[in-house]
Design a protein that fits this description.
- It holds the Pfam family Ldh_1_N.
- This is Malate dehydrogenase, cytoplasmic.
- Its EC number is 1.1.1.37.
- Belongs to the LDH/MDH superfamily. MDH type 2 family.
- The longest helix is centred in the last third of the chain and has 25 residues.
- Helix 1 packs parallel to helix 9 and helix 4 crosses helix 5.
- The protein contains ten helices and 14 strands.
- The strands form four sheets. Strands 3-2-1-4-5-6 form a six-stranded parallel beta sheet. A three-stranded antiparallel beta sheet has the order 7-10-11.
- With 332 residues, it is of the alpha/beta class.
- The protein binds (2S)-2-hydroxybutanedioic acid.
- (2S)-2-hydroxybutanedioic acid (LMR) binds next to helix 8.
């Protein structure tokens, strides 16, 4: 009989929200860390959400998940981040009507400065962090500047949702299974400037550009569809995506924890420093990566046309501007 593994501590911030509600069953049910990895769930939210979070805790208990060895539900950063091994940060200040992007950046910058400081003090020194709250890449960068004792490579931002969206759109167009479409790549920011790249993607071994013989769709319509998908979901649902966001978080953390399969390339927002694509250092930029032993490595050598390079630079420029705005608002 194999010995039982030590439980790992996993914090989810914004745990009482819609993404939290869709994500907790995936994490607690073994879909992220695997069916043999016990976990202690740390659930963090703001004080007005505590009553709701209490209900979520009751439901987790009522699910009788075999892997859940403890639940900590709190509105205290110190308690929530105590000794955590993995942090999935969904909590942030949502964009309100009439709010300028600059104001959203500033509000979230102050949240992620504080989050970083407490995480640095309280979490495991090898804590692996996924930032989901928007602006995700810049929040991750702000956090990283405040976590000097956690390796910068351990701080990532979610672009797997965009990657999955790209695979879904291509599969639908081909009348194929989404799982047959592999290696769609997202470059840049999780925003409307992101660049979904398909020239390394294939369907059952056939390059996407061969399978879909329509350059105008692949170089324009497809890119716009992926870029606008989040806004379309908000317009239709009245809320930001939650089910698909939770599913993408599950995929991101699963692959980071277990490693990528041979030939599999995934997209993650990661430290751009020293990247092989000429993107400025010091950003959290989404690149194609492979993962081994919980360390990601950027896959270089993708061929890029001038037009594609321009798309990569447009999203880089937005990330630089976001970083500058955060610095201006917080003296970082
Ligand atoms: C999404 O991509 O669905 C969200 O990040 C959109 C948003 O602005 O909340």
């Amino acid at each position: 009989m194999s010995e039982e593994k030590e439980p790992i501590r996993v914090v989810i911030s914004g745990a009482a929200g819609q993404i939290g509600y869709a994500l907790i069953p995936l994490v607690a049910g073994g879909k992220t860390f695997g069916p043999n990895q016990p976990i202690i769930l740390h659930l963090l939210d703001i004080p007005p959400a505590m009553k709701c979070l209490g209900g979520v805790v009751m439901e987790i208990e009522d699910c009788a998940y075999p892997l859940v060895r403890g639940i900590v539900a709190t509105d205290s950063y110190e308690v929530a981040f105590d000794k955590v091994d993995w942090a999935i940060l969904v909590g942030g200040f949502p964009r309100k009507k009439g709010m300028l992007r600059k104001d959203l950046l500033a509000k979230n910058a102050s949240i992620y400065i504080e989050t970083g400081k407490v995480l640095d003090r309280c979490a495991s020194k090898d804590c692996h962090v996924l930032v989901v709250a928007n602006p995700a890449n810049t929040n991750a960068n702000t956090l990283s500047m405040n976590t000097p004792s956690i390796p910068r490579g351990n701080i990532t931002a979610l672009t797997r949702l965009d990657m999955n969206r790209g695979a879904g759109i291509l599969a639908k167009r081909l009348g194929a299974k989404p799982s047959d479409v592999t290696n769609v790549t997202i470059f840049g920011n999780h925003s409307k400037t992101q660049f979904p790249y398909i020239d390394r993607a294939d369907i059952n071994g056939t390059p996407i550009r061969t399978a879909i013989n329509d350059d105008s769709f692949l170089d324009q319509g497809f890119i716009t569809q992926v870029q606008n998908r989040g806004a379309e979901v908000i317009a239709a649902r009245g809320f930001s995506s939650a089910m698909s966001a939770a599913n993408a978080i599950k995929d991101h953390v699963h692959d980071w924890f277990h490693g990528t399969k041979p030939g599999q390339i995934v997209s993650m927002g990661v430290d751009s420093t020293g990247n092989p694509y000429g993107i400025a250092d010091g950003l959290i930029y989404s690149f194609p990566v492979t993962i081994k032993n919980r360390e990601w490595a950027i896959v270089g050598g993708f061929s890029l046309t001038d037009a594609q390079r321009t798309l990569m630079q447009t999203t880089e420029k937005e990330l630089k501007e976001e970083k500058d705005e955060v610095s201006a608002s917080s003296n970082l």
